[in-house]
Design a protein that fits this description.
The chain is mainly beta. The protein has two helices and 13 strands, in the order ααβββββββββββββ. The chain folds into two domains: about 15-45, no CATH class; about 55-180, Sandwich (Immunoglobulin-like). The model is unreliable at about 1-5 (pLDDT under 50).
């Protein structure tokens, strides 16, 4: 056979390859450049925390206690992260309970919590972690390790309330967005 326009003999092509379909294609540099620009933009947005995982601090003060919640507001499926809930008492509290709204557990897996609570309970309002009595001026950080379930997408309310028995002392209302 004779050589084609590219100088490649049709007989020299491997079985199944055709000149018009596999060799004589428009290899435009602009398509490749566009793909590189899109991927670079995606990486740049990730560097500026558009897609999450950097912790955000929410704080609330009450007469009896203060509450600080340090946790990401934007996450991706499969992320593993830590939430730090810090309770500071201004006066003695007889029965400190931390109420986590259902959004903390819907689509998320609790890996560990430290310190562990004396008792845990689930209610319609959420999960309650019971830490007992705290004296005035005491600061108690609670570290909770989570993982985002891979199929979780969308916005979830993740409120935290500090109770003395059943009496509300202070609350932080927050939400988290999970990217697909």
């Amino acid at each position: 056979m004779t050589a084609g326009s590219e100088g490649v003999d049709q007989a020299a092509l491997p079985f199944g390859l055709e000149r018009g379909r596999h060799l004589d294609r428009d290899h435009s540099a602009w398509r490749r450049r566009a793909v590189v620009v899109v991927m670079s933009a995606f990486c740049t947005l990730a560097l500026f925390n558009v897609f999450g995982q950097v912790a955000h601090v929410d704080h609330a003060d009450g007469a009896a206690a203060s509450l600080t919640v340090e946790s990401p507001e934007r996450l991706r499926g499969g992320d593993i992260y830590t939430t730090v809930i810090t309770v500071s008492t201004h006066q003695p509290v007889q029965d400190v309970k931390v109420l986590l709204s259902p959004g903390w557990f819907s689509g998320f897996t609790l890996n560990a919590a430290a310190p562990q609570s004396g008792q845990d309970a689930s209610t319609v309002q959420g999960d309650i972690l019971d830490y007992g009595q705290l004296d005035a001026g005491f600061t108690m950080p609670i570290w909770i390790s989570w993982q985002v379930n891979p199929t979780t997408v969308g916005e979830k309310d993740q409120d935290v309330e500090i109770l003395d028995g059943s009496r509300l002392l202070v609350a932080v209302h927050r939400s988290v967005y999970v990217f697909p």
